[in-house]
Design a protein that fits this description.
The chain has 413 residues and is of the alpha/beta class. The protein has two domains: 119 residues, P-loop containing nucleotide triphosphate hydrolases (Rossmann fold, 3-Layer(aba) Sandwich), CATH 3.40.50.300; 280 residues, no CATH class. It has 18 helices and 14 strands. The strands form three sheets. Strands 9-10-11-12-14-13 form a six-stranded mixed sheet, sandwiched between helices. α9 crosses α15, α12 crosses α15 and α13 packs across α14. The longest helix has 23 residues.
Length: 413
């Protein structure tokens, strides 16, 4: 796995200075282990998927922690659910000591619950996704994300106007097609990419999900995830999906929770600050890695991708994930993401809300903006008295398309 710099490096280092334990969460093969070893190369490393390491850590944790009381990396922490309760006692004996344990985890289903119950106030959590496009080409986080470090205002527009693309259009579209799993993204070999993705998807279902949910009907879950890959960037009607797959709505709800908890899928909640009863409240969702979604759908070329019926929704999901990864790498806290849609079809693809304020974002695959396409975001900006809204597309230049709506090329973010 590559040791390319990751956007969240600074954040992980900062959290280790604040807490005795930091956990890096993320999907399998996104680079968690590589990042942990890169940030703390001299620390002792234990992988709970290796039999000897698992036995050493779990058979007598008191002895283990006497031998390794600090400077310790524990990989795949979800394999030992009692780890967090055990660590609590160790940490509480010396609460002032920071920078002791760096953990990784690839399933948040029970892990977050165990952390919340045992290590509240003692642990820093950070999520690592697959490569953001700038990471693939070894560039710093785009300047765009500096806007989230302070309150959005009229001057934010002036800052955005000076943004320049950091990657080419071809690099952006390649990332949309191939996704960001580090190993296949950097190999630049189509045969390897296909073999890697096929093995990855089968391992995810047949090993990872089977281990977490031994009673789960894997054939049905496999079909469900395959369908999800075609629904990225769309509103999820659970009953409709259930009918299509001949699976109960309750099972669909459970499957969605599993897909999200294993970092394959992201639920995007509806923005319900409005008192209007016309707001659609069903969740929207993104397949987190566009490359895996495209592979499952049998899309292997840019021509196939651009002719795919749901290419617009797929591009929207891809850009949403790029933005989320970017904001996660900043120091912004207590922020969230939403989408907005009314029952008459008026929609805003993404709304970010946090200490910086409220930022509505519309995402378009094309390069030209028609005024009718931005009417909903304009109305939202004026109704909520916001300083600006953003339209992200494949244009060449940053440009004001109305007095408060600014067009930003996707290769700037």
């Amino acid at each position: 796995m590559t040791d390319k710099p990751r956007n969240i490096e600074k954040k992980v280092n900062e959290l280790l200075g604040f807490f005795p334990v930091v956990i890096i969460l993320g999907v399998r093969q996104c680079g968690k282990t590589t990042l942990a070893k890169m940030l703390r190369p001299k620390w002792r490393y234990f992988d709970l998927e290796r039999g000897k390491d698992f036995d050493l850590v779990t058979s007598d944790f008191d002895f283990f922690v006497k031998e390794y009381p600090h400077s310790t990396i524990i990989d795949e922490a979800q394999r030992f659910p009692d780890l967090f309760q055990e660590l609590r006692g160790v940490i509480d004996r010396d609460r002032q000591r920071k920078n002791r344990f760096l953990l990784t985890g690839s399933s948040s289903l029970e892990l977050i619950k165990n952390v919340s119950e045992s290590l509240a106030g003692r642990v820093g959590l950070v999520e690592l996704g697959t490569f953001k496009v700038n990471e693939t080409v070894s560039l710093d986080l785009p300047d765009f994300y500096k806007i989230f470090n302070e309150q959005l205002s009229a001057s934010t527009k002036d800052f955005i106007k000076d943004l320049k693309p950091i990657i080419t259009h071809d690099q952006l579209m390649k990332a949309f097609l191939k996704g960001g799993y580090p190993e296949p993204a950097l190999k630049k070999d189509d045969r390897f990419f296909n073999a890697w993705m096929e093995n990855y998807f089968q391992t995810y279902v047949q090993r990872d999900i089977r281990a977490l949910f031994p009673r789960l009907e894997l054939t049905k879950y496999n079909r469900f995830v395959s369908m999800l890959s075609s629904l990225s960037g769309t509103i999820i009607n659970r009953s409709q999906v259930g009918r299509s797959l001949d699976i109960s709505e309750k099972s669909i709800r459970d499957y969605l929770e599993i897909a999200e908890g294993s970092f394959v899928w992201r639920n995007i909640p509806s923005y319900e600050r409005s008192v209007s009863k016309s707001v659609v409240k069903m969740p929207k969702g993104n397949f987190r890695d566009s490359g895996l979604a495209n592979f499952i759908q049998g899309i292997s070329s840019r021509d196939q991708l651009l002719n795919y019926p749901n290419v617009g929704a797929g591009f929207e999901a891809f850009i949403c994930e790029e933005i989320i990864k970017g904001v996660q790498a900043t120091n912004t806290v207590n922020w969230n993401y939403y989408y907005f849609r009314t029952k008459n079809g008026a929609e805003i693809d993404m709304i970010l809300e946090g200490p910086f304020g409220i930022l509505p974002i519309e995402i378009k695959l094309g390069s030209r903006i028609k005024q009718q396409q931005i009417q909903t975001i304009k109305n939202f900006v004026y109704k909520n008295d916001l300083p600006l809204g953003i339209v992200i597309n494949n244009s060449d230049n940053v440009e004001m398309v109305s007095d408060r709506i600014i067009q930003v090329p996707a290769n700037c973010i």
